Amino acid sequence: MANFTLKVNGTTHQVEVEDDTPLLWVLRDHLNLVGTKFSCGIAQCGACTVHVNGNATFSCVTPVSSIGNSEVTTIEGLSKDGDHPVQKAWDEVDVAQCGYCQAGQIMNAAAFLEQNPSPTFEEIDNAMNRNICRCGTYHKIREAVALAAKSK
Amino acid sequence: MKTQTGTSRRDFLKIAGTTAGGLVIGFNWFSCDSPKMEVLSTEQILAQAKSFNSFLSISPTGDVVIFSPNPELGQNIKTSFPMVVAEELEADWERVRVVQANLDPSKYERQLTGGSGAMPHSWERLRKAGATAKFVLVAAAAQTWKVPASEITVKNGMINHERSGKKGHFGEFVAVATTLTAPEEVVLKDKKDFTLIGTPVKNVDAKEMYTGKPMYGLDFQREGMQYAMIQRAPFGMKLVSVNDGAARAVAGVTNVVTFGSSVAVVGTSTWPLMKAKKLLKINYEPDGVVESTTDHDRLFAELMAKGKAEIKRKDGNVSAAFKSAAKIVTAEYQCPFVAHSPMEPENFFAHVQGDKVELVGPTQTPDRARQETATLLGIPPENVSVAITRLGGGFGRRLRADYVIEAVEVSRAIQAPVKVTWSREDELTGGAYRPAVRYRFEAALDAAGNMIGYKLRGVGMNAGNTTRESNFPSGAVDHLLIETIEHASSITTNAWRAPITNFLAYAEQSFLDEVALAAGKDPVDFRLELLNRAKTNPVGELGYDVDRMLGVVTMAKEKSNWGKNPSVKQGFSVYFSHKSYVAQVADIEVASGVPTLKKITAVTDCGLVVNPTGANHQVRGGIVDGMGHAMYTNLTFEGGVPKQRNFDTYRLIRLKEVPVIETHFVDSGFDPTGLGEPALPPTGGAIANAIFAATGRRLRSQPFIEQKEFSDIQLQIKRA
Predict the structure, then answer these.
(1) Side by side, which strands form the sheet with B310-315?
(2) Does B305 map to a domain?
């Protein structure tokens, strides 16, 4: 066990866990930030996507020991009241079915649009292809990302 | 329209105060303010609300709380059910809060999600719940204002008496209304007067989902709760001994518990358990037949050739028809095992305390969870409470209670509250699956190309019946034989979204294309001929409405411009399942030898569309699901264990593999039927038939990408 100081959503937290504990489980089990989802655990589905220094990151394969001073942002910290342009676009387009993957989709989209504010459809598809939605809301995901890009 | 209120009288006007019974009670996770609740939280509203019936409570503030009894797994029932209640109540949707009801068989019938059956079952019950509440509110206003009830109108949560100029919101009449007697009969609205039903109402949980609020079973936490993960035995094996020394030595592991052939590692958080589980040394021995995919393939061939079949339907004289046939078409189709793989893996919270049990989690069948728990512990079912969380998908996996019972077993053993979590590897190796199945079709054509004989033999596993013997083309063929053969497999299997038909439809609709080709007929004309035969001179019993099937076929032909553009190669498919009718056309264009799937057109008759957004979601999602599993997904076994253990090898469809999908709905005038499943079955056939039209390759097994006929086809997908 070791002590880690983490900056998550602008707040500093102390946790005592093993070095190899994935950020996902630190967030979910130790910091009670359960908006970040577990699904595959091997960086294949994107449900666990968070931002580490603004980059979309699979938290399920990111050991807590690798975070250091980096700023972690989760779905809970993406905006104050769910009013990030991507969250608003998701609501406007009414994307979700079961909704379980959507926090990861939103975090991926938000980081992507930060780096590429005016993407082509091809670029949107390439970026969002790393997140699986088992309900098949892919059309709406694409539509919402495009809307968020326009509304920024 | 007048209708008897039926059972609503029983539960009518039981003033329950805050005990209306939703998940909202007793869990601190809802204490975080929902963004919709600028003024009052749902708890605050419920604290003052009076119960009108099982489905709704109204507070003196005029806020309406609607309880949605059925588990929400993405089929949008938590939005569409309350829409129906609110429509008849004439509520202001902006002032409606929706609460997921806990399991309560005394209040709700059929509190489950499966078979696309919730809406057809509850449609009238929901309408009556809204209409009876409106009735007593009006009666209360009439009494208060001393005016005739017949002169009162209700709109948008407001009660009006135009002649006297009096008006007030629902809340003002709650106290009086809840002292009144329920009506024996209630007038339901004319469908043409609906103002909420038929409009695109947004998901009631949207904001919570998009801001990461805890709402799924896996998000549930309780003070003092332990975590557990479980190593299960391979199928057909049982546990002999376990060496858990290394597992127990992992920091954070507090216990290792064995029940049956399962070994549970217990601890204070999830990650140590994932490590500890890998350190368990378990010896198993065979306990029955240990199966592999190669065994299944051999078994299918044997049973197809000489297995003893159960006859499901026999019309006319089949052997004579085949003897007299001018042409016989025969083909066999096969599909593999697939898993349900909901994005939220199986999990459940259980707290066994003496003869009482508290259960919280994602289940499609809360009553089954309760019953199996009661049976396991030998306690009355009433001693088991079940709170239903939002489900991160289900697809039929959560119809079973195996993962609930595991949590009960562990909680009983460790005498503490516990949440059992499955990893993705657990989900893919722990059952229960859609089983592999094989079909042989035979068709007899006369000299004019009429299908005079039809035979279907299905060989399945643990399915009971691999066929839908009263479905099309039954009723359209004079001489017909439908048989099923069963293999009892040690691998656990279960209903999977659109059970049986999810594969049968693909096989049958592909085969009918083969027959149309042999008969020299256009595939759509061929189906229309058969349907017209079933309409004018049906053979035996029909399990489907011919006119409604004709309706979707005809509209799909028109909307897809069937056969109008020679450069577009099209595949047609139509299927009836779960009370709804869906026809689909897949369009492929070939340029320089490269085929591109450009579009799938879907025409659906699900009766009245309650929520167009939800309906579109279900149709497109069903098509994406049907396409994904037909194209890419395969689960194979070796020694009773699946070889594909996570999404790196178990391939699910992704965004870039999804084509344009165009949806249309037939306005048939029928009451709404479910849509969680019916759009899935036709998709594999539409795509396979289009691939044949474009390339001449007939795909008789799934997944397509693993078939040798598909190996040199570089199918492109046009996405927008």
Answers:
(1) B310-315, B479-487, B451-461, B437-445, B327-335
(2) no
